[in-house]
Design a protein that fits this description.
491 residues; mainly alpha; Growth Hormone, Chain: A
Length: 491
Amino acid sequence: MSHSKRVRSGNDKGSRRWLALIVLAFAQFLVVLDASIVNIALPSLGAELEMNTNMLSWVITAYVLPFGGLLLLGGRLADRFGHRRIFITGVAGFVLTSAAAGFAESGAWLLAARAVQGASAALLAPAALALVTKLFTQPQDRAKALGIWGAVAGIGSAAGVLLGGVLTSSFGWPSVFFVNVPVGILVIAALPALVSKDEAAVKVKMDLPGAITVTGGIAALVAALSEAEHLGWSNPLTLMLALAAVILLVLFIMIEKRSADPLVPFRIFHNRSVTGGNLSMLLIGGATTGVFFALSVYMQQVLQYNALTAGLTQLPLAGALVVFAGIVPGMIKAIGTRWTLAYSLILLAVGLIGLSFAPSDASFAIHLLGPTMIIGIGLGGAFVSGTELAVHGVKGSEAGLASGLVNTSQQAGGAIGLAVLASIAAARTNGLLSKGSEELTALTGGFSWVFLGAALFSLLGALIVILVVRPLSSSKVIDQSISICERMNLQ
């Protein structure tokens, strides 16, 4: 391939790498979208496929679990075999499994397709973010690129509810899966012309024991939290799942410490930006997944909105997210990534607390519009600055690892957060019903606690960022940025 046909980073002033960013962002949009787009479609697909409420929650979890659990392995595979190669493989798998989910004729079929879809997303997501960090090595350009990237992630979460409502109302629930197919095919067709073929960057053995134990540990933890909602913490099944989670996660740590080529080299956490960024993204994922699930159900079951109306009411949130995400790179330049993220999380908590006061007969304009717009602003800032923080200072050979880590944190946080917040909502609702409250009042009380719990996640994330992440002086930031470019050797 000639020099003029290659996408270069650093000093390349051409537009091709920005076109590549758009293509990569489309893929990321689909990945995040599919964690939330089915929320509005759950009632209709549940009725057609004869799935009860517990099974419906697993339509979300079956996707998020393998996604979050396999992201670390996906990141290392991308480092080992090439980021472009693994990205295209993941997109192809995502397209095929999306079609399979749309054609599902039973609940088991749908859950199986969702699980493989999540595994495919675990390949493409870290490879995509690694390609972005390699395409944009100059600090100013990288800040803009990651700003777009973080905005896309936030928009995907918000737009899932909107797009899910429009598609479900117009074409039925299978359309929320079929929409991925043409976009995925377009991504596969366009990317090779925009990103030059990469070679394997890291010659290491794959840490399969580590991948198996961390995936199994996260799955067992989420299952334990989910069963606790229905059976209680004293139930033998809940206790066995919790014990299995502890054992598997401890084994994972032991394996990683003794492995010559670990799935997660713990030295990466010596970088406090990586540590703080991932802890914050864990809590952001927990808050976001729980809130969008609860908000869509609250609007349909309590406020009696139809699928389309419930989707359309997310437009202000999505709009605020998009607008503010464009401002975030300027904020990062002015006050730093650390404080931008902390302030965004505090603002997110304010919106969530406001939403918790919405009554069972809430008016959208009075009770929901203001809080959801504040939530959108907080999410826009949190996604952008959280992603920037989590990949800051990482060398090129570990770009896939860092990308896998931040995606793992967000998705694992989403799975765990949904289970925790759903348990809180169920406990509150059942408590109110036992005291003689009307059903709608009891449901509203449960959702109110979900929003308060998500606000607590956000405030805890802000506290962690302030305490864990150390600010760098301007000279250190410049020196580190130059060092990153030299180590990535992509000029």
